[in-house]
C-alpha cells in the first residue's frame, strides 16, 4: 500500500445492509486487529469515507439505498489508496470486472466467512492463493440463490417462483427444507 498513513493502516470500512452479517463481520475483524466502521448503506458509508478515509474496505455490491460501487468510487475520489473487496450475493463476471477496474482488489461471493475476507484483504501479489478447503456444493449454491431471490421478493413465494421459473409448490418444498451442505 502506498500513501497510507500509519494511523490508518488497520482502519476498515464494512458496508452491508444485512445487519446480522455486518455485526458478526465487525466483531470478527475487530478480533483480527482492525479498527472497524460499519455502515448499512451507501449514504452512511460515503459520509464515513469523507469523515475519515479507511485503509481497507469490504463493500456489498447491492445495498438497499444504492450500489456499493458508489462507495468504492468515493474512496478513490478522496485519494485514499485503500485495499477494497467487493462482497456480493449477486455475482457475475460483468460486475466482477467492473469492480476490479474501479479499484477493488478482489471480488467475493456470499456467503464468505471472516477468514476468506481477511485473506483477501491481506493477500499480496506473488503469494500462493489457497484454495478453499470446503467449497460450496452445487446444491448449496442453488439454495443460496433461491434464498436471495426469495428475500429480494420480500418473501413472496409466488413472485419468487415466477422469477425463478419454477412451480410454486416446488419452491415451497425447497424453502421448507434445511440448507444443504
Descriptive overview:
Pfam families: HTH_8 (PF02954), Response_reg (PF00072). This is Two component response regulator. Residues 11-125 form the Response regulatory domain. The modification 4-aspartylphosphate is found at residue 60. This protein is an alpha/beta fold. It has two domains: 6-122, Response regulator (Rossmann fold, 3-Layer(aba) Sandwich), CATH 3.40.50; 138-176, Arc Repressor Mutant, subunit A (Orthogonal Bundle), CATH 1.10.10. Helix content is 45%, strand content 17%. The protein contains eight helices and seven strands; from the N terminus they run βαβαβββαβαβαααα. It has helices at 19-31, 42-51, 69-77, 93-101, 114-122, 138-152, 157-164, 168-176; strands at 11-15, 35-39, 56-60, 62-63, 66-67, 83-88, 104-109. The strands form two sheets. A five-stranded parallel beta sheet has the order 2-1-3-6-7, with helices on both faces. Strand 6 (83-88), helix 4 and strand 7 (104-109) form a beta-alpha-beta unit.
Amino acid at each position: 500500500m502506498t500513501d497510507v498513513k500509519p494511523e490508518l493502516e488497520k482502519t476498515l470500512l464494512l458496508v452491508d445492509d444485512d445487519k446480522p452479517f455486518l455485526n458478526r463481520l465487525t466483531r470478527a475483524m475487530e478480533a483480527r486487529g482492525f479498527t472497524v466502521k460499519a455502515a448499512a448503506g451507501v449514504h452512511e458509508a460515503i459520509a464515513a469515507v469523507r469523515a475519515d478515509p479507511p485503509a481497507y474496505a469490504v463493500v456489498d455490491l447491492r445495498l438497499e439505498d444504492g450500489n456499493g460501487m458508489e462507495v468504492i468510487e468515493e474512496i478513490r475520489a478522496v485519494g485514499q489508496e485503500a485495499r477494497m473487496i467487493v462482497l456480493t450475493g449477486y455475482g457475475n463476471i460483468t460486475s466482477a470486472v467492473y469492480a476490479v477496474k474501479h479499484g477493488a482488489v478482489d471480488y467475493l461471493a456470499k456467503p464468505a466467512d471472516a477468514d476468506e475476507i481477511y485473506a483477501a484483504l491481506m493477500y499480496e501479489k506473488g503469494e500462493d492463493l489457497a484454495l478453499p478447503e470446503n467449497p460450496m456444493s452445487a446444491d448449496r449454491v442453488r439454495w443460496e440463490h433461491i434464498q436471495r431471490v426469495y428475500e429480494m421478493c420480500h418473501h413472496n413465494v409466488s413472485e419468487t417462483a415466477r422469477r425463478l421459473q419454477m412451480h410454486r409448490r416446488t419452491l415451497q418444498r425447497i424453502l421448507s427444507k434445511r440448507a444443504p451442505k
